[in-house]
Specification:
- By secondary structure, the protein is an all-alpha fold.
- Among the domains are: about 70 residues, Winged helix-like DNA-binding domain superfamily/Winged helix DNA-binding domain (Arc Repressor Mutant, subunit A); about 35 residues; about 60 residues.
- The protein has 10 helices and no strands.
- It is rod-shaped and about 185 Å long.
């Protein structure tokens, strides 16, 4: 078999392996191959190569044209099915793949620059100075706040001490005043008792003995209180009364 005929058979096999062609009726495929100048033997060989053993029976039962039917039925060899060839990619497929890969690459680069690169790059000198100044300001503010708090605590402590001292002084003054009042009351009570004793002592010598009788309650109370007893004789009451009435007339 010449090389040109072999190339026709190869083309026929590739044609028959096409999925779109396999969905069409077998008679139409055979008619198309005959229109391309293939003989019945060549068509049968192409069917064997494209179909394989599973469709050998169907290929033998296909009604070929009358001048080729006898040759096809006389062949008892099974038709071998081969896998369809890989479809060829044209420039459109390459263009779509390039656009898709380029879009993915651009997205990866954009995400890397926006999120990953800032985390990996080292800070500049200006940024370091700015951060250092910010930390210094924060430490200064914290130190001032602590100083203010210490001053407030000292003021509160001083105020508490002053209040405590004033309260203690007031307590002492109150206690001193209470003691002074108590002493004054005691002195007044002592003076009253002394005056009462003096009055009692003055009443007894100045009173005439003639006017005091043993039956007088005052004399009895004074005598019993001071332990005084009257043993001398006294003038009767009726005589004292008459004597007192006569004196103004004289």
């Amino acid at each position: 078999m010449s090389t040109s005929r072999q190339s026709l058979i190869t083309s026929a096999v590739n044609f028959l392996k096409d999925p779109n062609v396999q969905s069409s009726p077998l008679q139409k495929r055979v008619a198309f191959l005959e229109s391309k100048g293939l003989t019945s033997e060549e068509i049968e060989e192409a069917l064997k190569k494209s179909k394989g053993d599973d469709i050998s029976t169907n290929a033998s039962e296909v009604a070929l044209p009358k001048h080729n039917q006898a040759n096809v039925q006389s062949s008892g060899q099974p038709i071998v099915i081969q896998p369809p060839p890989v479809p060829r990619m044209d420039w459109k497929d390459y263009f779509i793949a390039a656009v898709f890969i380029g879009g993915i690459g651009y997205a990866i680069v954009a995400v890397t620059k926006k999120y990953i690169t800032p985390l990996l790059r080292l800070p500049t000198a200006d940024e370091l100075d700015r951060d250092k100044q910010l930390l210094t300001d924060q430490f200064t503010t914290a130190s001032e706040t602590l100083d203010t708090a210490k001053l407030d605590i000292q003021l509160v402590k001083k105020s508490i001490e002053e209040q405590s001292f004033k309260l203690l002084e007031k307590t002492k003054e109150s206690q001193s005043q209470s003691l002074s009042d108590l002493q004054q009351e005691l002195k007044s009570l002592k003076s009253l008792l002394a005056n009462r004793r003096t009055l009692s002592n003055d009443v007894l010598p100045s009173s005439p003995t003639s006017t005091l009788t043993p039956t007088s309650p005052i004399v009895q109370s004074i005598s019993s209180h001071h332990g005084i007893t009257s043993d001398r004789p006294t003038i009767p009451t009726w005589q004292l009364t008459s004597t007192a009435s006569k004196d103004p007339l004289d």
